[in-house]
Amino acid sequence: MFTRYFSTSRKVLTGSILAGLLVALLCGMLQFFLSYHKREVRFDTLIVDLRVYMESYFSELKTSIDTLQPFILDSCQEVRDELTSRAAFSLNVRAFLLVKDNVAFCSSATGAMNTPLAELIPTLNVNKPIDMALLPGTPMLPHNPAIAIWYQNPLVKGGGVFTSININLTPYLLYTARQDEFAGIAIIIGDTALSTDSNRLVNIHDLHGTATRSTTLKDVPLTINLYGQAWTIDEILFALFFGLISGIAAGTLSYYILSIRLSPGKEILTAIKQGQFYVVYQPVVDAAKLEMSGVEVLMRWKHPTMGEIPPDAFINFAEAQKLIVPLTLHLFELIGRDAPQLQTVLPAGAKLGVNIAPGHLHADSFKDDMRQFGASLPPDHFQVVLEITERDMINQLEAAPLFEWLQHEGFEIAIDDFGTGHSALIYLERFTMDYLKIDRGFVNAIGTETVTSPVLDAVLTLARRLNMVTVAEGVETPEQAAWLREHGVNYLQGYWISRPMPLGQFLKWQPDFVKDSE
Ligand code: C2E
Ligand code: CA
Ligand code: CA
């Protein structure tokens, strides 16, 4: 039982550690997943916002360009002022250039000119209705990248409007710098890209990493790439921390729950509550008349999973766990419950042997408990005999007044397992004991080991001289019974008479040993 106790506490510990680890893993993963999901949602929102913003910008630009398209039919002188003021009032526009016969002839910034568009921006394809290019700078702002856009005039071959607009990623840089999961954005036109990584144009192959999100605008050949961090240190730390805290909490909780459910101490209380204990009765017969004079009550524990647990194990254990008092009170309760039926087969004055563990004997509540037990039995019917082992008397000299009190209250006392303890003979004189139960070890030896018989003989002589009534335990054979009867033992108990029986069986019990002995 004790090794079981330790293995149980190890089980509790292992179980709780496992539960803690499992919960830590689950919660950590859940937290990872949640923050991953949240970040994905933020990426989606940001890329959609960027696209919507840029698409509306370019659609507005297209609208204002459309109003400039008729100007290509006029001379630069006629339209220049108008062109300049339109450029001034268009957001981010550096310059509008009017193109006729593939030649730029008028600029909102510099006035009349005569440069073929192919020379100005070689990458632009004037045969397309709309084309774009990224420029490292423009003549006025040579170090500030710009977007060049070509809008072909659908009615005039080789004619159209060309414009350069500011491209400034600083706001995005500021935005993404504040969000630690965003690494940056890049604007891509053709093979060229401008990213928040640097303020110079780069080839798209020189962009760092793969984009988390990428989108191309509806009407213009411009792609936006969004770069993001797979995991941020903060998120990893938070998930680890969250997992750790949840794991510790779960481990502690399961330790608490498992200790309550599995701890053997509590198991005894649970077993009492769930009625797993029951009692059996073993008849004790008068050695001379071979008639039943009483019974010894023995406790049994039928555990739902471990089966029958021997009383030696659970009694000792209950004592170690300081649960012997509730256990004995439960025993009293079980006896009290059976008493009315016992009364039908046991005559008035029949002895009811009850084992009392030393732990209970010296408990504060002992006297009250005994009084209540006595009161729970049918009045004046049973003679309760408390079976107390030799060892308890040696240890407890104060037992003398207690024994006096018990006898005064009408209880009788038997020394149980006599002969197995240390030299208790001296205390036999000191205490008044009613019965002496000779341990079955002596009885067992009868007929097999001649040496023991003289010892038993001496014990019996001593008992007689002390005026004590003797009970022989563990009588298993007719030979043992015969020897004991010859030597004047008063009562016999053992398998030869009967094994301990549950109440139902005991009520129907018919002795058959008498016939054998005759
Ligand atoms: P015990 O008080 O000496 O009880 C007698 C034991 O001998 C019982 O074992 C009984 O079943 C067994 N026995 C009876 N006749 C024979 C026989 O002919 N041959 C053999 N080999 N054995 C026989 P059990 O019921 O296993 O109880 C063992 C011990 O546990 C008891 O020894 C007693 O010290 C303790 N115990 C049992 N029930 C209780 C109880 O309700 N309270 C307390 N405090 N102790 C109890
Ligand atoms: Ca006993
Ligand atoms: Ca005994």
UniProtKB/TrEMBL annotation:
One of its GO terms (molecular function) is cyclic-guanylate-specific phosphodiesterase activity. CDD domains: EAL. The chain crosses the membrane at residues 12-34, 236-258. Its main location: membrane. It comes from Enterobacter sp. (strain 638). It holds the Pfam family CSS-motif. Its EC number is 3.1.4.52. GO terms for cellular component: plasma membrane. Gene3D superfamilies: EAL domain. The keyword Transmembrane applies. The lineage of its organism: Bacteria, Pseudomonadati, Pseudomonadota, Gammaproteobacteria, Enterobacterales. This is cyclic-guanylate-specific phosphodiesterase. It catalyses: 3',3'-c-di-GMP + H2O = 5'-phosphoguanylyl(3'->5')guanosine + H(+). It is found in: Cell membrane. Keywords: c-di-GMP, Cell membrane, Hydrolase, Membrane, Transmembrane, Transmembrane helix. InterPro entries: CSS-motif_dom, Cyclic-di-GMP_PDE-like, EAL_dom, EAL_sf.
